[in-house]
Specification:
Number of strands: 10
Helix content: 25-40%
Oligomer: single chain
Number of helices: 9
Strand order of the largest sheet: 5-4-3-10-9-8-7-6
Radius of gyration: 21 Å
Structural class: alpha/beta
Strand content: 15-25%
Distance between the termini: 59 Å
Shape: globular
């Protein structure tokens, strides 16, 4: 069990609801993942629209917490407006804040992101900002009132894993009180396990499951990987060495001499 804002959760896996082959497969995959939080986009998944009503019913049947996002926003102002609409539409004060600064790698705009985060916090939102692994940016977001940060592992949908483990380890070491969730770029269960082994509180992913050949089985694989990674962190990984170290040393152990 762990605490995410005002919610107690069993799973440290958060999962997205886009890109699945069908709504039915989406529902099955989310169940298989064991995730207690599902992200969704107001622009794509409006429950009030005719095309989104069936999708919305499937999400409600999962009995999970919803984390609306501001995907597609490029300015603080549009992100703030989208967040306000999402709060009314989905009846939640949680918002995954995305303010994109570059359309090629979907990298967040740090200046617009901090501005939007500060304003939304002042309006009572629990802001989950999608950000890079830059320490100064993360410190600015915390100073703006965010309690949760979502640094990327790699660009969204790239599947390249944790491109800068040093930067991510630095964030974890320097921001021990913050809830840190690796978001974006995770392509394999081993990437998720690595993030949890490093001490991150959770991971959020979508493409790696939704676009797998078998999304349901892949979701199950991520469920086990996240659990294994957290157990490894809690158990304590051994330090890396530059040289070999025998697991069965000779000195001090009994041996038999054969003449």
């Amino acid at each position: 069990m762990w605490q995410l804002a005002d919610l107690t959760l069993d799973s440290r896996l958060l999962i997205g609801s886009a890109l699945y082959p069908s709504p039915a497969i989406m529902q099955q995959a989310i169940r298989a993942s064991g995730a207690g939080v599902v992200t969704l986009s107001l622009r794509r998944q409006n429950p009030g629209a005719d095309g989104g009503r069936a999708f919305w019913e499937r999400l409600k049947a999962l009995d999970v917490a919803l984390l609306p996002n501001t995907a597609g926003c490029h300015t603080a102002r549009t992100a703030i407006t989208t967040a306000q609409m999402a709060r009314e539409m989905f009846d939640t004060h949680w918002i995954k804040l995305e303010v994109i600064g570059d359309d090629y790698n979907l990298q967040p705009d740090p200046f617009e992101l901090v501005e939007a985060a500060g304003e939304l916090v002042s309006q009572g939102f629990e802001v989950f900002p999608y950000c890079t692994d830059d320490l100064v940016l993360c410190e600015r977001l915390l100073a703006a009132g965010c309690r949760i940060l979502m640094p990327w592992g790699a660009p969204i949908g790239s599947g390249r894993g944790l491109l800068n483990p040093y930067a991510l380890r630095t964030l974890r070491a320097r921001l021990p009180e913050a809830t840190l969730i690796v978001d974006a770029g995770i392509g394999a269960p081993s990437h998720a396990a690595q993030a949890l082994e490093m001490g991150f509180d959770a991971v959020l992913l979508n493409t790696a499951v939704a676009q797998a050949a078998d999304p349901v089985t892949m979701a199950r694989a991520f469920h086990h990987a996240v659990a294994a990674g957290r157990l490894a962190f809690e158990a304590g990984l051994i330090a890396e060495r530059d040289s070999a170290s025998a697991s069965t040393p000779v000195v001090g152990t009994p041996f038999w001499h054969q003449s």
